[in-house]
Specification:
3-stranded antiparallel sheet; 199 residues; two-stranded antiparallel sheet; 10% strand; mainly alpha; 8 helices; single chain; 5 strands; globular
């Protein structure tokens, strides 16, 4: 797909390269957001993640799976954030050996300000119609679902991989959220997700 002569004849190749360029833009935006606050891109991502996910997802193991990094690497990142006074370890009441992470007040304030690093991308999507965005979302969701099934993505909380999504004759229904959903309404990061065992 990276051969320009091949791209000229193959739409899939052009899409792959476009996604690679958007991925590069994300890296640049993350670096810029982090630079201003003396944080690495992964530190920025972890702060934002901790701000929006419950304690069950805020463990070293879950973060390791979420960001496809080893536990020792995530532990080092968390230790640095702790030393900066941005993250706190909260010991489990049931097991003194386990803990989850949460943001300190300073960490929460910083996470909220950092999450706007995607503003340039949002701005450039405003010109697209709802229908165009919907088609794009459907394609991206299909790609993510396939990558999850192939084991490339280890941890996703998406409707297509959730046991709560019930397939009815004319619709799909989320048993947990108690609502009918079209594929265009499927969530990519759902707090109620429960992994479908056959995936």
């Amino acid at each position: 797909p990276f051969d320009p002569s091949h791209q000229s004849k193959d739409l899939d190749a052009r899409i792959i390269v476009a996604l690679e360029r958007i991925s590069e833009a994300f890296r640049v935006m993350l670096w810029e957001a982090g630079k201003k606050n003396k944080l690495s891109p992964i530190q920025v991502q972890i702060l934002i993640f901790l701000n929006y996910h419950d304690s069950g997802h805020c463990t070293i193991t879950c973060l390791s799976e979420e960001f496809a990094m080893s536990k020792p690497t995530i532990s080092e990142v968390v230790k640095t954030l702790e030393n900066k006074g941005l993250v706190l370890k909260v010991n489990s009441e049931k097991d003194s050996r386990s803990f989850h992470l949460k943001l300190s007040p300073a960490g929460k304030h910083l996470a909220i300000s950092l999450e706007h690093f995607t503003a340039p991308l949002s701005k450039n999507m405003n010109a697209d119609t709802r229908e165009e965005k919907q088609r794009m979302y459907d394609c991206l969701l299909n790609a993510l679902t396939g990558l999850r099934k192939d084991g490339v993505i280890r941890r996703q909380r998406m409707c297509p991989t959730c046991e709560h999504l019930q397939h009815r004759k004319t619709s799909r229904h989320c048993g947990k959220l108690k609502k009918d959903m079209t594929p265009s309404e499927y969530l990519i990061d759902c707090h109620e997700h429960s992994e479908l065992q056959e995936v």
